[in-house]
Amino acid sequence: MDNPLSIKPLSKADIDFVTEISRKEGFAPGVGDLGIYQNTDSQGLWVGWLNDTPIGCIAGVRYNENYGFLGLFLVIEKFRGRGFGLQLWKKAMAHLSDLPCVGLEAAPERIADYSKWGFTVSSKTTRWQWLGNGKFLDECLTQEDLNNFSFVEDSSIPSTAVEKFDEKREATPRPHFLSNWLNHPAGKVIAVIDKEGICHGFGRIRPCLLKTGDGWRIGPLMADSPKLLKILLKKLIDSHPGLIIIDTPGLNNSATELFKDLGFKSESETFRMYRGYQPPVSMNDVYGLACLELG
């Protein structure tokens, strides 16, 4: 009989452990991501301990009274099959039990398991990769674009305009998460703003940790036209050589052909699942998710 698992809230001292097992699992964690997850819901991340050894983790983050998300569900391989994952799962589910909608990203082989807990498949999520030298596409800005739009970076971005654009395209408003995400010093953020101060798209590129070496993850990546999306993508990728990763929701019907045409390769697939209602939001302008770990 194994000793009982002790499940404790994530502490700063645990961040390196969770980051490293996420990296080994191929999650490609972004630099600084865990701190943002913790700021979104300080009670929603846990580490499982067997005696004095950390062996797994999970996140069950409440965005608000209507929506939560499960992610970062990992147990070190040699400790699997002993019920520790189920104990972590029940801890996170209890934290989210009163919410009318809970989402997660499922590997194909886990869909049947999550279905037993009331989750149903909504759509496929595709992870795209592009390996380059830091120069992406030929120049695609016209004089009309330059006259009509500004491509604003980092601290100069009008946060209220970006929040208004984001909340119409996400499962739930997320101003606290978005503020932390877009103001993090790692990487670069660019927003597309017209002369009236209205946002037409935005994106963030940040360094991430691959199984071997480093790369870049882009997300969120949103634009209300494919042309603006390509310009935004070019401006994010330029001067960032190496492997680029983007996770695209299947509910954006145009994304697959667009990324194929741009030379991206499909690397893997997961499936968005929900327990409760399906969020009634269009994803046609969403080309890249902020992170699979928090939806």
Question: Summary?
Answer:
The chain has helices at 15-25, 33-40, 84-95, 111-115, 143-148, 159-167, 175-182, 226-237, 255-261; strands spanning 6-9, 45-50, 53-62, 67-75, 101-106, 120-132, 149-153, 188-194, 199-209, 214-223, 242-249, 265-276, 286-288.
Question: What does the secondary structure layout of this molecule look like, with pairings?
Answer:
Layout lengths: L5 E4 L5 H11 L7 H8 L4 E6 L2 E10 L4 E9 L8 H12 L5 E6 L4 H5 L4 E13 L10 H6 E5 L5 H9 L7 H8 L5 E7 L4 E11 L4 E10 L2 H12 L4 E8 L5 H7 L3 E12 L9 E3 L7
Parallel strand pairs: 4-5, 10-11
Antiparallel strand pairs: 1-2, 2-3, 3-4, 5-12, 6-11, 6-12, 7-8, 8-9, 9-10, 10-13
Helix pairs in contact: 2-7
Quote the beta fraction.
35-45%
**Individual helix count:** 9
Task: Tell me the total number of β-strands.
Answer: 13
- CATH structural architecture of the largest domain: 3-Layer(aba) Sandwich
Q: How would you state the average pLDDT, rounded?
A: 92
In helices, the fraction of residues equals 25-40%
Q: Please give the largest β-sheet.
A: 13 strands, mixed
Shape: globular
Output the structural class: alpha+beta
Structural domain tally: 2
CATH level 1 name of the largest domain: Alpha Beta
Unreliable runs = none
Oligomer: single chain
What pattern of helices and strands is seen along the backbone?
EHHEEEHEHEHEHHEEEHEHEE
Report, as a whole number of angstroms, the end-to-end distance: 36 Å
| Named CATH topology of the largest domain | Aminopeptidase
Pfam family, one: Acetyltransf_18
Protein name: GNAT family N-acetyltransferase
GO molecular function: acyltransferase activity, transferring groups other than amino-acyl groups
Domain N-acetyltransferase: 5-138
